[in-house]
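Supplementary Methods S3. Input chains for the assembly prediction are listed below.
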Amino acid sequence: MNITKLMRLPATIGVLASTVLLASGCKSMIVFDPKGPIGSQQRDLINITMLLCLIILVPVLIIAAWIVVRFRDKKGNDAPYQPVWSHNTKLEIIWWSIPIIVILILAIVTAKYTYKLDPAKPIVSDKKAITIQATSLDWKWLFQYPDQGIATVNYLVIPEKTPIKFELTSDGPMNSFWVPQLGGMIYTMSGMATTMYLQADETGNYMGTGANFTGRDFAKMGFTAKTVSQSDFDGWVTESKSGGSALTEEGYQTLAKPGTSDRMTFASIPSGLFERIVHGYSMSRGAPPGYTLKAKTLSGEKALEDSEGGQLPPGNNAQKDSPDVGSFGSGHTYHKLDNHHMYHGK
Amino acid sequence: MRGEASVIDQIKDFASWFFVSGDPLIYGADVAIALTTAAIIFVLSYFGKWGWLWREWLTTVDHKRVGIMYIIAALLMLFRGGVDALMMRTQLVFPDMKFLSPEHYNEVFTTHGVIMILFMAMPLMFGLFNIAVPLQLGARDVAFPFLNSLSFWLFFFGAMLFNMSFVIGGSPNGGWLSYPPLSELTGSPGVGEDFYIWGIQVSGIGSLMTGINFIVTIVKMRAPGMTWSRVPIFTWSVLSSCIAIIVAFPVLTVTLALLFLDRFLGAHFFTMDGGGNAMMYVNLIWMWGHPEVYIVVLPAFGIYSEVVATFSKKRLFGYGSMVFAMLSISIMAYFTWLHHFFTMGSGANVNIFFAISTMIIAIPTGVKIFNWLFTMFRGRISFTTPMMWTLAFIPCFVVGGMTGVMLSVAPADFQFHNSYFLIAHFHQVLIGGVAFGYFAGLYYWWPKMFGFKLNETIGKWAFWIWNIGFYVCFMPQYVVGLDGMTRRINSYGWDTGWWAMNFTSTIGGFLMGIGFLFQVWQIAHSIKFMEKDTTGDPWGARTLEWSIPSPAPLYNFATTPLVTDRDDWWEEKERIAAGKMPKEKPKLEPIHMPKNSPIPFIQSICWFTVGFGLVFHWLWIAIPGFVGIALTLLAHSFNYDTDYYIPVDEIRQTEAKAGRGV
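Predicted structure tokens for the full assembly:
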């Protein structure tokens, strides 16, 4: 039995099927379904680079297939055989120059778009940008609206067609703030603040997530970026200010402890909290040296692990049909505990 | 009575703290490890093989045996890393399944990454270096045989230390590169991170020494007449890989040492508290980490070049271009590290520099693809297993390279970064480029190692199952990545719509697992029904290693070959076929050989002890380990009895046994 022949059929079917699958999958892939100016430009850039690469890729694959078929070691193969032929300056110049030209074009495109899409560059708009200060915590997101004086946990509400200036930091491990349909991601790092401008052009609920691994419940760091009209946004701000409870310094310390959280809304925030989160690190002393501690093994860790009741992380469509994201007040529970506590010395 | 009970309780407490408890999967592994160890001890004792094991293997300095030990260890690690992969894929089939708890999942993907790169790809690569390079050069051994043995045992005991974390203390769970602050004591208070640091540290020292050893071997030990333009292409690829090793590995050693100082002494190199900077770690680890992927892929390029030329029955096309391309890749590898954190928030200028310096690597790589294609052009291609893996590599690597170029476009990377798109990309280049290459090399040099070929039919089954599994597994991951799925998550919402793709991907993963089982069957079957290779040149190959019997005798070449051509052995065969006289061989002379030494094995155990003591912060174990290292160093320094000569009669007998008159 000739395996090569036997397997050729399933392999071909597999490749064709996956091509169809990929092509049909494109429609639903959210990176290709942007809802804002940054996301759309990134989609265009991805398409340009993909096309540039395909210009080389497709001919190479065709030539490869042709060569493999044509020069098989088979009786009666009349293709030319030149065992000593191993150098041709002209040919080599050709295939050194093809990738050089393509990479040159790609480099120019990349440079142009890198300046254009610099995340810290403000988006040109008639409307004034709204600042949102995002802090990644273990394992939840805190969003502060310094101008509005409110804060949310694990969900965002933003007005449509308005540039949003995200100021990002982390109070814990390094994470990454990512809302694919609005634009790319930027790392959040403790002791540092990064900036990223995004804008949504349509109302809707967009999936947001933490993209850099941060430990146990990293998978549950999804959040919803809810985009509403300007008047709905103003209404939501007023409602949040009157309805919720205040975020205090002590409340923040509790929130920052490791554990997952439901959505929450706070009617007020302590002024300068974000700056204190960023600066706190350079002021404080770190953990006690390891030699002073008894080595911890995983048996102890496992005993502390809690199940969170089988809750699944939020996705990209779940919130679309769900009732309006309301205030959850402060009636939430905190999970877990001392063992993972970060010694920030604050 | 009471005193006894409390001692027993103390032992119980200690055991339940020391051994990982509370997970049925790990209890299963405990049992499996205990049974395997017992079986090995029983078999060795029953057949009285302890002395043989010690004399022939544990103390050997013969590059061929060291190579075989590397390969065996690497294949075992491939199995372990593969099981890790299948466990993750199983968990991701049904996101709300409680197959792996979040912490266990984190440990599994961390160890999968570390094992596959450092304890599978690296030793498999070093194994092939050891098997092929001295033979291709016409040398008796590597430049420093003792050091070579020490390198192997350091790798082996480093890997053992790392693997032990699985059942003792707990595995690392901070990702395969352990970014701080997660990997600092505050984020990971367990001993897992210390196992990570010391496992890699000990084996990393071995890797650095191997890099030095092979550079010296290639520069100094070439047979007379082997000018640089006649060096076989695989050896060139090893040289370029080793150049990258000696620059990259010291960076890794220092990085991990600093992280250890942070964790153990409370230093602040990488903590923002106290004035350190976590991003410094990320920079440093990728200054090693990105060259590392070129370190493992360059030798694979060398293997493809050898295999393509051999099985197209044609000279390699564009030898000069190929060498230039490989050397330039090994240097350009140092200007790409920052593309791993385009999303850090550095300015556009920095991102542009690293985006373009990354893309540029596509140029020499693309040229190599053309050269391989034109080696086959006007040749005669035979579809043996090594050649099949090489042919499968071309489309796989071209697509992987294309997604790599897409990732290098900084603003587009803001969307791909840390997503499954990235996961699919690097698995495509690492499996399609590195693993396929090493499989090709393993099949290709297998007869030279053991004197028989592996079964081709089962090999082709394995090949097809692997390849179909590969595409089924990784193509859907590009799609879920673009649909917003991030790496390293152990569950996701049903509403995300990622299930179908993850399910498909898991099927592909298991297909690759079945492919691996076919390879195991292939080896077992071939050992049982082996056909001895009497020619020494079963493939009709081109380079010097095929001019001697298989398996190669202890001294490799009875007389040092005189090289007059690039494909010297091929030209010699052509001359004989044309009825001309073969090259004249010099008279037999006694051969100078290195003596076996137990010191590499013993010293590596001492390193293991040091690592283990420091992981648990038990200085009473670590300090004797340090003393042991110092004593073995001294013992070796004052040992002058390190070599001997093989007399001419013995060479003549050995050659006659292999069917060669001298």
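The longest helix of chain A spans residues 37-70. Chain A has seven helices and twelve strands.
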